[in-house]
Specification:
Layout: H1 2-11, E1 16-19, H2 21-26, E2 37-40, H3 47-53, E3 58-63, E4 73-74, E5 88-89, E6 93-98, E7 111-117, H4 128-134, E8 135-137, E9 146-156, E10 162-167, E11 171-174, E12 177-180, H5 181-189, E13 194-205, E14 208-217, H6 224-234, E15 246-249
Parallel strand pairs: 1-2, 2-3, 14-15
Antiparallel strand pairs: 3-4, 4-5, 6-7, 7-9, 8-9, 9-10, 11-12, 13-14
């Protein structure tokens, strides 16, 4: 993927690009003199990628869930080497960092991130229950306005910049897909040859995030290939389409 994309960037003289850190990390180091603006998002970006790609061009980190179609915040120019923050709200959007009672938390205190504004979706088609759970009344906006509960944890820095901290649940993002680690563990553990399983995300190379299933075989042992096909055959979730699964048997 990376080499093919590099050819497109170079041959088509692309000047502005939006991509995920995973995609960016797959592109070989090369000179792209026409690439003047680079926006990254979808998943956390390692500082090493910022150092490699911010020199000589404008590089911005943008944040936003699909339910906000799609960006909510953005940073200024990135330079590295630290992993970038997620900036501040863009025009027309609002962000709130709140506690469990929907009270705004002080600067530096971690809370759950809610977003609101003109880009907010109406809800999930055919899923009224989930819509009611995630799209709630906005107590800080005008009457009738709603805000979206992202499930992300964040905090404000003293300079007015927002930092992403983590999740309130075990949801992660790998190559742009939202993945519930518990769902993956349940799918793998459903095979009779699997005794116990734990699934995590590893990033051995900057920008290359992969799902790793640590499996303790049942007494009869387990064949990794058989378990892999079992999971793929019965799965309809997006994480089944993520390439680069690693399976590591634990004694």
């Amino acid at each position: 993927m990376g080499e093919d994309l590099a050819v497109v960037l170079r041959d088509q003289r692309i000047s502005h690009a939006v991509m995920s850190p995973t995609v960016l990390g797959s592109i070989p180091d090369d000179a792209f003199p026409d690439l003047r603006t680079l926006i990254i998002g979808i998943e956390p970006c390692p500082g090493e990628l910022v150092q490699r790609w911010s020199v000589g061009r404008r590089m911005v980190n943008a944040y936003g869930p699909t339910e906000a179609t799609v960006y909510v915040t953005a940073t200024g120019q990135l330079s590295g080497p630290e992993a970038p923050a997620i900036g501040g709200p863009i025009a027309g959007m609002r962000v709130y960092v709140v506690d469990g009672g929907l009270g705004v938390v002080p600067v530096g205190v971690v809370g759950e991130l809610y977003v609101a504004g003109v880009g907010l979706a109406r809800g999930y088609v055919g899923r009224a229950g989930l819509t009611g759970e995630r799209f709630v009344a906005d107590p800080f906006g005008a009457a009738g306005e709603r805000m979206y509960r992202t499930g992300d944890l964040a905090r404000w820095r003293s300079d007015g910049v927002l930092e992403f901290v983590g999740r309130v649940d075990d949801q992660v993002k790998v190559r742009g897909f939202r993945i519930e680690l518990g769902e993956v563990e349940g799918a793998v553990g459903a095979h009779s040859s699997v005794g116990r399983v734990a699934v995590v995300v590893r990033e051995d190379r900057p920008g290359d995030r992969r799902l790793v299933a640590y499996v303790v075989p049942a007494e009869a042992g387990c064949d990794v290939g058989v378990v892999r096909e079992f999971v793929r055959g019965g799965c309809r979730s997006s994480w089944c389409r993520v390439r680069g699964w690693w399976w590591i048997g634990c004694p």
